[in-house]
Specification:
The structure is a homodimer. By secondary structure, chain A is α/β, with parallel strands linked by helices. Chain A is about 40% helix and about 15% strand. The first copy, chain A, has an 8-stranded parallel barrel with strand order 1-2-3-4-5-6-7-8, surrounded by 8 helices. Chains A, B: GO terms for molecular function: hydroxymethylglutaryl-CoA lyase activity; metal ion binding; transferase activity.
């Protein structure tokens, strides 16, 4: 099986999905979902975020979640960290990997992190120091890599320069994130091809939102450029603060269904994912955007109506 | 500008969208929408269907719609016809083009049309006779070309044989329809490439539903194989009787936004389409699946929040 026949999905619903839910998801429910996701075959799960409990009360139980989940051998449990304090909490909670985040857009980084981009990079360097010798992996994300809702298009050179600086800091993985769903397939193919001249596909993750309906088309465009690893959220949880009613992350089970129909292996149990997704509306208290959980797999046939 | 830089959208909301709406859309509202669509730049609009008013009361005003719309020079107003009687009504109402429909799947054709496939083909021959000398164009659709909800996968040879038989009957255009959204991009690329060895791209239309989230990815796959012409519905109207809550046709304004972001010309006024789509919930009485109308175009920027 060649790399062209495989796609690696990192499940991010417990972090990127739950962080914006207005209703607090009970810690036991979070743990049950993460454990079920582990059993469904994920090798990477972004389990929580060590942000300020005041800023994001939805994830105030980050340490307890990491402590109580049943860790599956071979699965990497990732924690997003916004700063050194968050990194120290995540290290104490024994996250397998820290995901550091800043935006390509100066305006977005100030709005989202309260820091200039240079201050974020300096914080990254301190986190790298703190993690040294712990055996914990580091990934760094370029948010708004495909466009910023305040500034608009971001120069590819700016994004690629950040990739270079991340690698120089010593992080293992890099994520390019389309934070508010502004990317298009032509842009994705070009930027991913350039990023892959700097970092091998095994270490690059693409994070797409389906805000304007292009999430899965962007996945295929990234794959054509050589990408292997993608973030996705069960049920398409997540969202965009600037687009009420807009859809969130690309939907895990829709992505996996597409892959399996195209003979691309994911190692994931699609039936289990659909069952889990169908439980989400009861958990979060609203409908979710995922479509395969509503429509069924293409191979789920129906009885024809009786005709005269 | 090469053919690679152009995509032709046929708007089908007035037919494929309105036909399944439980609430009757007033004739004046249908006409106002079609006229606004004409002004937005469409060169092809599937305006209605001459089905039995008992079977599809939603479109019982087909003749009045065709009579009262303000026809735009250069725009082709298409009417779907299920049988010879419908074709005679459509010819009397001066449709510019008739769209004949049957399914690749014998089971689906019996369920949908009440006919065997051979009986449908015989009816097509009679319709061709009836249209001869009128100057009215003919298009014929292969429904369930990418899969049948009762039978499952359809052999490509079966679909391509129907394309051959349509062309032998003398129709000008052929549509391959993914009636219940079962297609995937790999399958689309392969089948479209084979179809284009039989019919030039200018005469082939692809009709995708977004039932499982792959509609726009399938458009790009078809384009890679050389396709030029696509059906889409404003707001993503339409649906699938076997998947309550599932999305319908691919969404016109989402498709057009994608194209314009990728420097593919459509000749359509995206701002006008978004305005029209934002009026649909009031017209049909429910939310619609289109995403760009909710999220705005990628270039619609937001003011950054004030930070300390």
């Amino acid at each position: 099986m060649s790399a062209r026949d495989v796609l690696i999905v990192q499940e991010v619903a417990p972090r990127d999905g739950f962080q914006i839910e207005p209703r607090f998801i009970e810690t036991a429910d979070k743990i049950a979902l993460i454990d079920a996701l582990s059993r469904a075959g994920f090798t990477r799960i972004e389990a929580t975020s060590f942000v300020s409990p005041k800023a994001v009360p939805a994830l105030r139980d980050a340490a307890e979640v990491l402590e109580r989940i049943a860790r599956c051998p071979g699965t990497i449990y990732v924690a997003l960290v916004p700063n050194l304090k968050g990194a120290e909490r995540a290290l104490a909670a024994k996250a397998d990997e820290l995901n550091l985040v800043m935006s390509a857009s100066e305006t977005h980084n100030r709005a989202n992190m309260g820091l200039t981009c240079e201050a974020s990079l300096a914080a990254f360097a301190r986190i790298v120091e703190a993690a040294r010798g712990t055996g914990v992996r580091l990934n760094a994300t370029v948010a708004t890599a495909f466009g910023c809702p305040f500034e608009g298009a971001q120069a590819p050179e700016r994004v690629l320069d950040l990739v270079n600086r991340y690698l120089a800091l010593g992080v293992e993985g890099v994520t390019l994130a389309d934070t508010t769903g502004m990317a298009n397939p032509l842009q994705v193919r070009r930027l991913v091809a350039r990023a892959l001249s700097r970092i091998p596909a095994e270490r690059l993750t693409l994070h797409f939102h389906n805000t304007r309906g292009l999430g899965l088309a962007n996945v295929l465009a990234a794959r054509e450029a050589g990408a292997l690893r993608f973030d996705a959220a069960l049920g398409g949880l997540g969202g965009c603060p600037f687009a009420p009613g807009a859809t969130g992350n690309i939907c895990t089970e829709d992505l996996v269904s597409m892959c399996h129909e195209m003979a691309i292996a994911t190692g994931l149990d699609l039936d289990a994912l659909i069952r889990l997704s169908r439980g989400l509306p009861a958990l979060v208290g609203h409908d979710v955007p995922g479509q395969v959980a509503k429509a069924g797999r293409p191979c789920d046939l129906h009885a024809p109506p009786r005709t005269a």
